[in-house]
Every structure is written in C-alpha cells, then in structure tokens.
C-alpha cells in the first residue's frame, strides 16, 4: 500500500514536528482514534439537531391545532390584569368581561367540548362555563380545566352573562361566566383530609341532622385539626366577618364617646387575680412571669392616670381546666373602664347601649352573613332584642323568677353562691318567654361572689354595685363600679382573705393614693358574643384557632 492510500492520509504530514504522524508521515493509531471519535460526535450532534427540529415542528403543529394554548395553563402564561371580587359581581357586570381569582369548588364535564366549574371566593360562588368554540377555548383547555384538582386556585377571565333560570348551586345565582382564559395560580393536592363542603354542614355535636344527607358528618375536632380548609367554608367566612365587625363596632362606639384605646401588658409579674387560673412563664430571665388573666388593674391605673375613659381589645389567658362549650384558655377580651358623674348606672347604661348598638347594627348590616349561618344553624337569625333596649333586672329579681319556675335557689338565697350555668340558661329561657328578649342585664350581685375591687352597695352590705350581661341565658360580660380609694381597697382585700402586701398589689393600690375619680367598667368576651348572637353550639366555632386544655394547634 502506498503512503497516499493509507487511511488518514488527509492528515498533515510533516513528520518531524507533527505528533499525529509517524516517522514515515503515516497517521498514528491515537490520531486515527481521535479522528473517528470526532466524526462520531459530529454525527450525533447533527442527529440531535434534527430530532430537536422535528420535535419543535411537532409542537408547533400541536399548537397550531390547539389555538387556545396560551389561554390556559400555568399563571406564568397570563398577562397582568385587574381583578374584581366575586362579592361585587352584580347584574351591572352583565355582558362585560371580568377577571377574578377563585377556588375550584366543583367541576362537571358534560362532553369533550363542554364543562362547568363552580368557583368560590370568600363564601361567594358562581358558575363558570367552558365551551370549546372558536380560537378562545379549545377541547384541550376544557379538559385541562376540568381535571385540575378541586380547591385549586384559578385566575379566570370571562364574559359575564345573565341566566334565564337561577343557578341553585351558586350563591350568585343570576349570573354565569363564559370562560375565555383560565390559569392555575396555585394547585391543591388531590387528597384533602376533609372537604370544604363538609364544613358547610352542622357539627354533629349540634344534634342537627339532615336526613337526606348520606355522608358521615365531620366532628368538630377534625374540622379544627384542618382549620385552614374549614375556614374556607362560606359559614366560617360569615362567622369571622361578624366577629371582625363586632370588634370594629365596639371600637367605633368607644371612639365616638371619647374613649381611648390602650394595650396593657400581657406578661405580668404576679398572679394577682387568684393563683389557680394563671399560666406561669417560668423562663423569664431567671424569674417567673405570668400571662394576664384580665386587663383589670391596668384599666383602673389608667383611670387613676386621668385617662377618664379607656378600652382595650386583647388576649386574655385563663388557666382553667374548663372543658365546656363556652370556655377557652385564651380568648379575646373587649374591656372598657370609665369615670362617671353621679352614679355607676351611667356606665351600666353606656354598656347596655354599646351592646344594643353592636347587635342591632349586625342585624341591619350583616343580614347576608347571618342568613348564610342561619342555613346551617337556624337560631342565627332569631336573636331578639325587645324594643332595641336591654332588659335590666336585679340579681334578686332573677332569683325570684327562677323560684317562681320551681327551681331550688336555697343556696343563692343566702347571697353566697353565684347562679350555676344551668340556672343562668334556664333564666334565659324564662326571660325570653316572659319579656321577649335575648339580651338582659342582672344588677346588684351579692358581694360574696364578686372580686375584691368591687364597690359595695351603699345600703345593703350583702350586695354590690356590680352587674353581668347575658345573651340567650349565658354570660358575656361582668362589670362593676370599682373601689377608687386605697384604704377601702385594702380593707376589701382583707375581708376577702387577700393580703394587700402580697407581691403584685403595691403598684395597683398605690395608683389610688393620689386620688382617683369614681369609675366603673366591664369585660366582655368577643368569642362568646359571636357564639351566642349566632346561636352557635360551641365557642370554638367563633374562634379562628381555639386554645383549650386539649388544644394548642394549629
Ligand atoms: P364564666 O362564669 O362563664 O366562667 P367568668 O365570670 O369567669 O365567666 P369573667 O372573669 O367575668 O368570666 O370574664 C369576663 C368575660 O370574659 C365573660 O363574661 C366572658 O364573656 C369572657 N370569658 C371569661 N372566661 C372565658 C373563657 N374561659 N373563655 C371564653 N370567654 C371567657
Ligand atoms: Mg363573670
């Protein structure tokens, strides 16, 4: 074989300085290997390029077929848009194109080209129609939207249309949306521990059963374990709209009457209102601190500091192992305290008017929310306030009413024991029948059942200038005129077996040594107001993330 015919003859042949050739100018073995490898690489590259081009062409073809490919899918494909809220969608939006965010409550496929979604936002639902037609909506788009797991969050754009027959499955029953764009904002997992729809049924503890409903009811503890899903239900959205409104109405009313809002400490140095009910924080820099059981001392110290009228909305902690329908270990307290001119009844009337204002405003302005809750808990809509006024009775009148009804009140007759919960409830029933009201006040409680800072009755040593407020026969507030003089306070403490020199009392008692105007006030529980106003079975239903002796999560 001549050198020209040797494989690799094309390689440069400068024998002396070229490592790829041997002395005779023929390519070396390694040079041949390398050349072969490179050729192989180039071939592979070309093939990959070809494949990629083919793929792109196929994709393009598919896209050409699915003309709506940009109208659905991941939200990253969406163009920016302003969104309306479902609650604002009225008939005025008919024939307009809107964009909104909503969860998928339900999907229903009619055919490959037609599907329906029920979409939900904050308790409002609307029907959305996906109909494959023209370039806007493709069969692929209909399929994709209907296969998205229930509870996923969509951003939907569509034409609002009036419907002939009301849509029973949606709260916005007179309109529907013809979808032209639908993007997934956030995807729900396929498996839900409970469905939002389960939370739109009464808790089994309520005893309300729907004989038509075959699915097993989900008990309250499972709902609370899965509170984020639970809270998405329309009934819970409505409950917390009401709860929020109570705080706002309370605040507005107090401001309107010249009061100022304060935040008093929740970490305190001593367990001053009875040791049993207090949570200790044992790692407070080498000392023990306690979680405040009430803002009582601080409200009064602010009155002594010439604040005249103060209020607070804040957490209240009670370390009581009370496993009942109305006790929490942490609740939201609505507290107020104010000076008066002549008589503590000025403050008592103020408190009554405050509650009547809150409850009647709720009835007027939150009728939709009340109706939503009433669908499940029928008592939500029947709270009675006769003549829009509180009924005020004396504690002794309450006892007399119970006695009249045949209740044994021998213990209460001695002015040493408070009404039991059962008695309170019974009194609530009696008062509703007799006076046609669910909101009433008992005044002049026995001194023996009230705390040491309570002002004694001016003429009857057994009684005190104190009151409780009740809704449907259950307590929502305790209040009183307070002692505003240091030596009288010390005396009252001793009479109740409390040592005024014990830790934690000095600052409080000293507050009154420079003079303090006569004052009165009260402490309300937000969770209970909402519970009893709406006739809910359990205070936990009116608490977003309840804390009780068994529950510290979620
Ligand atoms: P109860 O007799 O129902 O246990 P209380 O007399 O101990 O209540 P107060 O100390 O008078 O309660 O508290 C004032 C208000 O705070 C109550 O009327 C109620 O609305 C609310 N409240 C008290 N304790 C609780 C609790 N454990 N959980 C929820 N709310 C509470
Ligand atoms: Mg009380």
Automatic annotation (TrEMBL):
The keyword Ligase applies. It catalyses: tRNA(Asp) + L-aspartate + ATP = L-aspartyl-tRNA(Asp) + AMP + diphosphate. GO terms for cellular component: aminoacyl-tRNA synthetase multienzyme complex; cytosol; nucleus. Its EC number is 6.1.1.12. Its main location: cytoplasm. Gene3D superfamilies: Bira Bifunctional Protein, Domain 2, Nucleic acid-binding proteins. GO terms for biological process: aspartyl-tRNA aminoacylation. Residues 35-54 have a biased composition (Basic and acidic residues). Keywords: Aminoacyl-tRNA synthetase, ATP-binding, Cytoplasm, Ligase, Nucleotide-binding, Protein biosynthesis. The keyword Iron does not apply. This is Probable aspartate--tRNA ligase, cytoplasmic. It comes from Cyphellophora europaea (strain CBS 101466).
